[in-house]
Amino acid sequence: MNILMQLSEMQNFTPNEQSIASYILKHKEHVLQLSIQELAKATYTSHSAIHRLTQKLGLTGFKEFTITLAREFQQSTQPISNVNPNYPFGSGESSLQVAQEIAELMKETIKKNVAYMDDELLSQTAHLLNNANRIFIYAQGDSQIRAKSFQNKCFKINKYVVIATELSEWIHHTINLTSEDCAIFLTYHGISPNYVQVAQHFNRENIPFITITASNQSELAKLSTYCIRVPNDEEKLAKIGTFSSQIAFEYVLNVLYSCLYKIEYLKNMHTTTESLKKFQINNLMKDI
Length: 288
What we know:
InterPro entries: Homeodomain-like_sf, HTH_RpiR, RpiR-like, RpiR-like_SIS, SIS_dom, SIS_dom_sf, WH-like_DNA-bd_sf
Largest sheet: 5 strands, parallel
Order of helices and strands: HHHHHHHEHEHEHEHEHH
Strand content: 5-15%
Protein name: DNA-binding MurR/RpiR family transcriptional regulator
Radius of gyration: 22 Å
GO molecular function: DNA binding
Keywords: DNA-binding, Transcription, Transcription regulation
Strand order of the largest sheet: 2-1-3-4-5
Distance between the termini: 58 Å
Domain HTH rpiR-type: 1-76
Helix content: 55-70%
């Protein structure tokens, strides 16, 4: 989760931390010019209280805190698209206008998603996937299409991904997972009772899992080993289609695959190249 969001939600903040957060959100124009001592004085708190807050936000100290805030303030002041994620086009628009608005929606969704990205979280998640014996994905509907795309990419680097929910065999897959495996939940609202039940089982059995969701405060998200958030722009029922959510899921899974690939870049490149060579040789032999 980005820093501004954590400051606004104030989850598990002490009264002093709430005062600091409120001051920062109300004085965005000049707070970046303040030293830690000046911020402590302005908020009637202390140097140590600010330092503890930065650590609670997952940062190493005040310097990283101000750098991260500056980046997020810049992103938050950029023009917001007027494309409605639920109804991105109207009935009277030309086909070219529809094309332009879908392009704008894709661009804005990814831009928002980038703001939620965290370097350490992505690195830890990628290493979890890399070290797992098996990867199981829980996804339904359109999200399962995104899961299959990720599965197909992973095949190319000898990471064999199972779509646990593909043939309604999720119960059997769930029971067979071990602590050497990992799972991914791809769920926009994160409210499925079945998923929560599976997550509770994983916690009991020390099986790590990742949740990619727009609802980072759901029970499923809180149970997760790692939670990656996507923009929460779509209404559950009032929408033309699952445009924004699926753009976000595709983007996050592409990022995870790329981070996974990067861990053993040369090995994965060699694996892909050798597979293609063997395939070409086999085709040539068939023609003889």
